[in-house]
Amino acid sequence: MGGGKAKRPSYEMRPIFGVHMPLYEHVFISRQDLSNAQAEGLVEHFSTVLADNGGKVVESEYWGVKTMAYKINKNRKGHYAFLKSDAPSAAVQEMERLMRLHDDVMRILTIKVDEHAEGPSVQMQKRDEREGRGDRPDRGDRDSRGGDRGGFGRR
Prior knowledge:
This protein has 155 residues and is of the alpha+beta class. 19% of the residues lie in helices and 30% in strands. It has a 4-stranded antiparallel beta sheet.
């Protein structure tokens, strides 16, 4: 066994100046009985975990308390938070591990992206500022149906 330094695996990301680390987006849901300050404190806590492991949080957003489509751990609502990060995969894995162990975090989602979108996320934009919705088409043809919604055999 050689007396030299241990060789790093070739697949491991190395922090080299001028080369960007992978970009990730994370959304996590925390319990509804937390205060807003505690929920935002979780965002800071997990941002620190990324920073301690060689990554950085580019942007973070607290989306507030939202109603979920189904119950998770007997909760109907949850505090939603969104993070954009520039971090090595080891830092992301450590943050996800700590999120899974944290009692206040109910769900996490992490995706790898090619680039971060500029500006606020869709959740933070006002409804009238969102693109692609436009005006709804004219629905004048509905009057011809009579509007009685469910009568079988009433013709």
